[in-house]
Amino acid sequence: MTYTVVYEKISDISFPDGYCYAHIPSLDLTTHGLGIEGAKDAAIDLVKLWIEEKKARGEKIKTELESFYSKIELEDALFG
Predict the structure, then answer these.
(1) How far is Cα 55 from Cα 1, in angstroms, rounded to an integer?
(2) DSSP E strands: which ranges in 2-64?
(3) Cα(10)–Cα(31) distance, rounded to whole angstroms?
(4) DSSP-assigned letter for residue 15
(5) What is d(CA 42, CA 63) in angstroms, rounded to the nearest whole number?
(6) Number of helices (H) and strands (E), helices first, in the chain?
């Protein structure tokens, strides 16, 4: 199975420097880890646990069909 993961640097002061979020949009799951590699490892562990839980409950395991991503830019004046 393949799932898209979106990484974002964490700026929350309650996290040490260098931590990143890893979000799996198709499963609506988010975790975090140190750097992208740490976040990726955490995402792999989280998805494995999610799949195990679904199997244990006899539920369908959701797969990702297609993902599309873009960025939008807003003018600073909108926030002033």
Answers:
(1) 14
(2) 6-9, 19-24, 29-34
(3) 11
(4) S
(5) 19
(6) 1, 3
Domain boundaries, the chain: 6-79
Tell me: the pLDDT tens digits for 18-41?
999 999 999 999 999 999 999 999
Phi-psi region of 67 (alpha: psi -120 to 50; beta: other; left: phi over 0): beta
**Angstrom distance (rounded) from CA 4 to CA 68:** 10
Please state the φ and ψ torsions of residue 59, each to the nearest 5 degrees: -90, 160
12-51: burial string, b at 16+ Cβ within 10 Å, e else? eeeeeeebbbbbbeebebbbbbeeeebbbebbeebbeebe
Spatial separation of the C-alpha atoms in residues 57 and 80, rounded to whole Å: 49
Q: Which residues of the chain have pLDDT under 70?
A: 76-80
